[in-house]
């Protein structure tokens, strides 16, 4: 196991009077990384709220026997071909991000650690831009369906390939550009860009597809992708305004440390830290529980009569952005990382139980809409702060291993967890188990029964949320190595951080 003393500057050898500096340019660097994350998240989630329309547009002709023109937009039904194979293009289009994130994560971590913030940001913005160009081309109605689908998957894969480069930047930007009393806030602000992108990617499709489309080859998806293309181009231009990865003078003692272990040695050392395994499970569950629900919940909510599911996702993300910033300020002042995450886990479990119970008693009134929207807001309020605080905690407990390595591993496992939970929630409704549905009861015209076993999937999701709470509260007891190092440094020197 790597000893701290081998890779950190010994406090006793430091000058007696140390001055660290914060530069105004740090806000531009942070803004660019935030906008990059926001745009990429919007590209990722934008097809979820209109999944049925995506399937209608991209599925080939075998799914439309005697249905050349779709006279009514199918909001809550899967398309099946003559061999009874479902068309899941919208679902797999979202899952591409998780698959690519897991596969390319290590490479993105390596580039960020070795070449720094600027190179990693350049790579991410270019891939993001090319990806949305191809996706926009795929939405041209004049293209035949084989070309549509090929361009869609190619574009989505390239946009997803941007993830490994920028998604580990938030803790690195916070560490290298911000002092210790602003790091958690900067990290929270950077990570809040992800749910802000979810807001953009959820609301805009709802505004574009606010009416049923009468034909299969409409222009709605083309307008949506063109708008996202404009955002992607703007962010890429802003990215090229970044001239350096590091400030001339570091903002804190830990950022002045240049004795990080070699990349692969540090990566392997992470898995020799027992508490890091606990953090992987906690972080991955927090990430997966929130977003897996919104990726897969559309068919169930539309059957229950909840229209405009995208607005619910947006409300949840907005609440999560606000709570993340509050949590970041609180942690900067108190350093209570684990307490915030434990509080989040308790809130997630309680809200999950409330959602599970509430959907069983849907009455179709206005109050149902308000209560469901409020519960989804609470879910985002409690779950999203666990992301930035969890990343910051990972860096604290694995210091002096490079920030991108520890945060990158956490994010890779969170993408894997999101992939698994999304698959469970998406496919468990097809099981004929425990609950009656229209198919299992033989009563296809019974409006009081759901067409699929959605209640089973909600039970599974709720059970995982409760397990997440219990595990977090009883197992998460970390040691803050970075804070201890900075306190030791303070004891041996007169340390100050000034604003330039």
Structural write-up:
The protein has 500 residues and is mostly helical. The protein has one domain (4-69, 85-499): Growth Hormone, Chain: A (Up-down Bundle), CATH 1.20.1250. It has helices spanning 4-7, 25-45, 51-58, 89-138, 145-161, 163-166, 169-177, 183-208, 220-239, 263-270, 274-296, 298-303, 309-334, 337-358, 366-383, 386-398, 403-427, 438-441, 454-475, 481-492; strands at residues 17-22, 494-499. A two-stranded parallel ribbon has the order 1-2. Helix 2 runs antiparallel to helix 7 (169-177), helix 11 runs antiparallel to helix 19 and helix 14 runs antiparallel to helix 16. Mean pLDDT is 78; it is low at 1-16, 68-77, 80-85 and 440-448. This is Major facilitator superfamily (MFS) profile domain-containing protein.
Features:
500 residues, mainly alpha, Growth Hormone, Chain: A, two-stranded parallel ribbon, 20 helices, 2% strand, globular, disordered N terminus
């Amino acid at each position: 196991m790597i000893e701290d003393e081998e890779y950190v500057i010994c406090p006793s050898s430091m000058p007696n009077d140390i001055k660290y500096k914060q530069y105004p340019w740090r806000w531009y660097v942070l803004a660019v990384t935030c906008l990059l994350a926001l745009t990429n998240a919007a590209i990722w989630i934008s097809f979820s709220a209109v999944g049925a329309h995506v399937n209608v547009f991209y599925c080939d002709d075998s799914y439309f026997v005697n249905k050349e023109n779709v006279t009514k937009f199918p909001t809550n039904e899967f398309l099946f071909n003559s061999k009874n194979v479902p068309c899941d293009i919208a679902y797999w289009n979202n899952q591409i991000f998780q698959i690519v994130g897991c596969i390319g994560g290590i490479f993105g971590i390596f580039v960020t650690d070795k070449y720094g913030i600027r190179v990693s940001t350049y790579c991410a913005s270019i891939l993001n831009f090319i990806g949305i160009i191809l996706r926009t081309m795929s939405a041209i109605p004049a293209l035949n369906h084989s070309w549509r689908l090929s361009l869609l998957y190619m574009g989505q894969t390239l946009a997803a390939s941007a993830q490994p480069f920028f998604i580990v930047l938030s803790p690195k930007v916070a560490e290298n550009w911000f002092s210790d009393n602003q790091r958690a806030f900067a990290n929270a602000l950077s990570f809040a860009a992800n749910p802000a992108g979810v807001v953009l990617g959820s609301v805009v499709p709802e505004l574009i597809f606010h009416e049923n489309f009468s034909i299969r080859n409409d222009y709605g998806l083309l307008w949506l992708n063109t708008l996202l293309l404009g955002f992607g181009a703007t962010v890429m231009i802003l990215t090229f305004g970044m001239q350096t990865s590091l400030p001339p003078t570091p903002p804190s003692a830990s950022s002045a440390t240049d004795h990080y272990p070699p990349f692969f040695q540090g990566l392997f050392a992470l898995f020799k830290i027992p508490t890091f395994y606990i953090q992987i499970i906690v972080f991955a569950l927090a990430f997966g529980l929130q977003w897996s629900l919104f990726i897969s919940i559309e068919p169930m909510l539309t059957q229950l009569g909840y229209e405009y599911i995208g607005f619910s996702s947006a409300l949840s993300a907005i609440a999560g952005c606000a709570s993340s910033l509050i949590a970041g300020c609180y942690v900067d002042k108190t350093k209570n990382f684990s307490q915030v995450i434990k509080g989040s886990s308790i809130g997630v479990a309680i809200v999950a139980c409330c959602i599970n119970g509430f959907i069983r008693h849907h009455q179709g009134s206005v109050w149902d809409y308000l209560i469901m929207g409020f519960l989804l807001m609470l879910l985002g309020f409690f779950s999203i702060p666990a992301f930035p605080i969890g990343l910051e905690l990972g860096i604290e407990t694995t210091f002096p291993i490079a920030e991108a390595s520890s945060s990158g591993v956490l994010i890779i496992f969170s993408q894997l967890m999101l992939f698994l939970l999304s698959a469970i929630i998406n496919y468990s409704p097809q099981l004929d188990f425990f609950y009656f549905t229209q198919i299992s009861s033989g009563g296809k015209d019974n409006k009081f029964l759901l067409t699929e076993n959605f209640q089973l999937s909600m039970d599974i999701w709720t059970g995982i949320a409760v397990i997440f709470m219990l595990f977090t509260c009883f197992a998460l007891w970390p040691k803050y190595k970075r804070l201890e190092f900075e306190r030791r440094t303070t004891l041996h020197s007169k340390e100050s951080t000034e604003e330039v």
